[in-house]
Design goal:
Strand order of the largest sheet of chain B: 3-7-8-11-1-12-13-14-15
Number of helices of chain A: 3
Strand content of chain A: 5-15%
Structural class of chain A: alpha+beta
Largest sheet of chain B: 9 strands, mixed
Mean pLDDT of chain A: 89
Number of strands of chain A: 3
Structural class of chain B: alpha+beta
Oligomer: heterodimer
Radius of gyration of chain B: 30 Å
Low-confidence stretches of chain A: none
Radius of gyration of chain A: 22 Å
């Protein structure tokens, strides 16, 4: 059962601000999402070994360097940048 | 009342792979900011991480070298937290099924510091704080780490120091990390509590985060021990919290308390598949591991009769012990080589860094040849020493400095003659020796050694002189 406190707590952990008038509807939505995901827990898995949908294990890369992206491209989506760094402003 | 210190370590070690853990960007230290980055390591949507095979291999090596059980099946998890050093807002790590479990590191006092587990994970980016703003460089983001989590088995600052040094030495030996604390490739979090001596219960602990020097670790632990004891003695209680150590003031201060402790909401990372390692594969890696320093040290002492302290110095860095192993090939007395390394060679390698690099001009083969001459009795120790000094300077073989004539040995009759002369020339010393002053004979011997240009065998000369006087 998802409570208002859960939503508040997750908002804090995610550094999100949730306006008071949205709390109830968000709690309800989140409960619906979790309930839907719960469907999977009700599946009968008795005697079935399941790890992942593609039944894959040991997908590895060799340790060989490939070229990185130019830093100007890396910084392209940065909300703010300075001196080739991502810049996070102090909003306190 | 006396209080016992109880500490456990979480040690982060950057692995020396060429590429990051989940993408092919370079792990090289330095570099322009954000120049070793790609969509995977800055966490752009739609990218798929792919595990670097070498990270698994190195992780297993670390586990084997610290007596861990290697998991046949392990998995990657997401550790969720929101901070600018993590572009994805989660770190890919291992919680539920780490790669290595239940190991230990043995200290010189015989105590075993148990290792709870070792897991593999990605490093976070580097933050530079400036006037409240934060500048982020993601070059380090995604660099592979192992985290070695010990049990709270450490009981003193000295044990803590040795534990960290041992880990550093072992990881360098097996070649998975350079463990340079000042560059941040080895960092420690220390969990520390105190309890009345004799008590079996654990006290409330605090955690000192992210220390990158052994000096800081020991100072921070000393400070924190005193602080906790003071608190308890004055009727207070230790609060479980995370602390940061400030080396400028040598104090710890609170970062966050238990109340606002992180809730990481760990869960299996759905982007990464299970890691399966067979016993055969583990054995194969085991076979490739070099002899570990502790074992090597014991072998030098037991097999070669090297004094304990010398054996410790020889095995402190892998380069030295490898040099020693090569230089003793075919020698009857490996101690000759160890004496030369610790005497002549260490004299020109002043700093620990120099010793670790062990970059000298004389090859192990050249030193071996010199020692063989000595063993064959063709030259005497003094000549060998002075020749080695010259070789260390020039890098040329002994044949540049020792002639056939030097090696020809001395005619017995000539040595006898020199001894007679020596006794005649030093009547006073002879008298003193006869009167019971043992050391006086050294002057007589010195005369022979000097006039034979160091070629005479000191032991023989001493025997001859004593026989003549007696």
């Amino acid at each position: 059962m998802i409570t208002r406190e859960d939503v508040e707590n997750i908002a804090i952990l995610s550094k999100l601000f949730v306006p008071e008038d949205e709390m109830d509807s968000l709690t309800k939505s989140m409960q619906e999402i979790v309930s839907f995901a719960d469907t999977i827990n009700n599946a009968d898995t008795e005697g079935i070994e399941f790890d992942n949908i593609n039944n894959l294990s040991n997908v590895f890369r060799e340790d060989t360097v490939k070229e990185s992206l130019p830093s100007k491209d890396i910084l392209k989506n940065a909300p703010e940048q300075a001196e080739d760094h991502f810049l996070v402003r102090n909003h306190a | 009342m006396k209080y016992e210190l109880v500490a456990g370590f979480e040690t982060h070690i950057e692995l020396g792979t060429d590429t990051k853990i989940f993408c092919s960007c370079s792990t090289e230290f330095g570099g322009e900011p954000n120049s070793h980055c790609c969509p995977v390591c800055i966490g752009l949507p739609g990218t798929l991480p792919k595990l670097n095979k070498k990270v698994v291999e190195y992780g297993i090596m670390a586990g084997l070298a610290t007596n861990c059980e290697i998991a046949n099946v392990s998995k990657m998890d997401r550790k969720n937290y929101c901070y600018p050093d993590l572009p994805k807002a989660y770190q890919i790590s291992q919680l539920y099924m780490p790669l290595c479990n239940r190991g230990y590191v043995e200290l010189s006092n015989g105590r075993k510091i148990r290792i709870h587990h070792i897991h593999i994970e990605e490093d976070a980016g580097k933050l530079i704080h400036n006037h409240g703003d934060t500048y982020v460089d993601y070059n380090r983001g995604g660099v592979p780490l192992i985290e070695i989590v010990s049990e709270p088995d450490i009981r003193s600052v000295e044990e803590a120091r040795e534990y960290v040094e041992k880990l550093q030495q072992i990881m360098r030996y097996i070649g998975i990390s350079d463990c340079r604390m000042q560059e941040g490739s080895m960092r420690c979090d220390v969990n520390i509590s105190v309890r009345p001596e004799g008590s079996q219960e654990l006290g409330t602990r605090t955690e000192i985060k992210n220390m990158n020097s052994i000096t800081f670790i020991t100072k921070a632990m000393e400070y924190e021990y005193e602080r906790q004891v003071d608190l308890i003695e004055n009727g207070g209680q230790v609060v479980q919290e995370t602390l940061r150590y400030d080396d400028a003031t040598n104090t710890t201060s609170s970062m966050r308390s238990k109340e606002d402790a992180h809730d990481y909401r760990y869960f299996r990372d759905p982007d990464l598949v299970t890691i399966c390692v067979t016993d055969e594969e583990i054995q194969e890696i085991k076979n490739k591991l070099p002899e570990l320093p502790q074992k090597k040290c014991r072998r030098y002492i037991e097999e070669f009769g090297v004094p304990e302290n010398d054996a410790f110095l020889l095995t402190k860095y892998r380069n030295i012990s490898e040099y020693f192993d090569k230089a003793i090939e075919g020698l009857k007395k490996p101690r000759t080589v160890s004496n030369f390394i610790i005497g002549q060679i260490f004299r020109i390698l002043q700093t620990e860094e120099d010793k670790e690099a062990f970059d000298i001009k004389v090859t192990p083969g050249q030193l071996n040849e010199l020692c063989k001459l000595l063993e064959a009795g063709k030259i005497q120790n003094n000549l060998a020493k002075s020749t080695l000094d010259k070789m260390l300077e020039s890098g040329k073989p002994y044949s540049e400095y020792i002639s056939e004539e030097d090696m020809a040995g001395l005619d017995e009759g000539f040595v006898d003659e020199l001894c007679r002369q020596a006794i005649e020339a030093n009547p006073k010393a002879v008298e003193q020796f006869k009167a019971g002053k043992e050391k006086a004979i050294m002057a007589v011997m010195g005369y022979v050694m000097k006039n034979s240009k160091g070629k005479a065998n000191a032991q023989d000369v001493l025997a001859k002189i004593k026989a003549m006087i007696g």
